[in-house]
Design goal:
It comes from Candidatus Kentrum sp. SD. Keywords: Membrane, Transmembrane, Transmembrane helix. Residues 23-183 form the HPP transmembrane region domain. The chain crosses the membrane at residues 30-51, 58-77, 89-113, 125-144, 150-174. The protein is built from eight helices and no strands. It has helices spanning 3-17, 26-50, 62-72, 81-101, 105-122, 129-139, 142-147, 150-174. The chain has one domain. It has 190 residues and is mainly alpha-helical. The chain is globular, with a radius of gyration of 19 Å.
């Protein structure tokens, strides 16, 4: 195998997996990570204040995935406020309902994920981490199941509200140095 041939195979392999060149500056990558750190710290602090940590989750893990979207791709369509809020809250409601109505864990999980996808499409709030929120409501254990629809408010609602407020705040703070990182994408800044 010649060098050119192996190089061609490597390019095909990279293209197949969707690996693309990243033109994001090192400073912007650092700022995204810093924003994610600050945001998750505040989400945890605020949610702990409102949600007792007596076995029930006070932080929904899918919020970490949402922070990746919000701070790595703040202008992306899945990162905007309605997909963030609607995607998580609607998905949580679907997950809770699935867990309450379907006793088989596998079937409840499949129904929650598929109905979440369907609902997010029709309500125009596609936010992939929302599907994980729906699954958390189904497989998250007895403490989450026992909380019922309260899970929608605490921790999900609190997590999402703080995440959204922090995304807007850090965009305002860092937007002076990185004007292309404004959030929400259609906000105007002078």
């Amino acid at each position: 195998m010649t060098f050119l041939s192996s190089h061609s195979h490597a390019k095909k392999f990279i293209r197949f997996w969707g690996i693309q060149a990243n033109s994001t500056s090192h400073a912007e990558r650092f700022i995204a990570a810093l924003e994610g750190f600050l945001c998750m710290a505040v989400v945890i602090f605020v949610t702990r204040y409102f949600v007792p940590s007596d076995g029930a989750a006070f932080l929904v893990a899918s919020m970490g995935a949402s922070s990746v979207l919000l701070f790595s791709a703040p202008g992306g369509p899945f990162s905007q406020p309605w997909p963030l809020v609607g995607g998580h809250l609607i998905s949580a409601a679907i997950g809770i309902t699935s867990a309450m109505m379907i006793s088989d864990l596998l079937l409840a999980s499949a129904v929650a994920a598929s109905v979440t996808i369907f609902a997010m499409h029709y309500l125009r709030c596609i936010h992939p981490p929302g599907a994980a929120t729906a699954l958390t409501a189904v497989v998250g254990g007895p403490a989450i199941r026992e909380s019922g629809y309260w899970f929608l408010v605490a921790p999900v609602g609190i997590n999402v509200l703080v995440l959204l407020c922090m995304a807007i705040l850090v965009s305002y703070v860092f937007g002076h140095w990185f004007p292309g990182r404004r959030y929400p994408a259609n906000s105007k800044r002078q």
